[in-house]
Write a structure and sequence with these properties.
Length: 173
């Protein structure tokens, strides 16, 4: 499973709990759409991602609220492979629907994952789905959430889940 998080907005701790924490610990790969805020939070999430198996990779992009030292360490966009699919991550604060669609086409992406709005959901563009995992820790009027992507036969199943395990959205690619 690939787990995607976003918009933690912490200063010391990972702020993971419930199914979100379990999913991060069990994931084959963890992706974060930025706005950890501090390097300490980035390191705490990376530690949880690697706790069970000795190291699930943490792929992350910089958000507009990340400390300058952390932002300098992280790219603006990143492309990862999972289950034979190309997944592009961006924070999203400087991208509208058109530029996200262009980014997806440019990278020949099967899925684009963005954050920034704290609004969990899955939207379909002409090229591919755009997934926003929301925020597991700072939902700002939305439900706290994270994303889970799994190989399901020949398809990729995408789910948005709450820390309590409630299913908020799903789609297959």
């Amino acid at each position: 499973m690939l787990v995607t998080l976003g918009d933690t907005h912490g200063d010391r701790a990972h702020r993971l709990e419930g199914r979100t924490l379990t999913a991060v610990r069990e994931a084959e790969q963890v992706c974060h759409t930025g706005d950890f805020t501090t390097e300490r939070v980035y390191e705490a999430i990376a530690e949880e991602a690697g706790r069970e198996r000795g190291g699930a990779p943490l792929s992350a992009v910089a958000g507009n609220s990340d400390d300058p030292d952390l932002a300098a360490r992280l790219p603006e966009t990143i492309t990862v492979e999972y289950a034979g699919r190309t997944i592009v991550l961006a924070h999203g604060h400087d991208r509208d629907d058109t530029s996200l669609s262009l980014l997806a086409r440019q990278e020949d992406a099967d899925v684009v994952i963005v954050g920034h709005t704290h609004r969990p959901g899955i939207e379909r563009t002409p090229h591919c789905p755009v997934v926003n995992p929301g925020s597991h820790a700072d939902p700002r009027g939305n439900r706290a959430a994270h994303g889970e992507l799994r190989q399901a036969g020949d398809e990729l199943a995408i789910e948005i889940r709450t820390p309590d395990g409630d299913l908020l959205a799903e789609q297959t690619v």
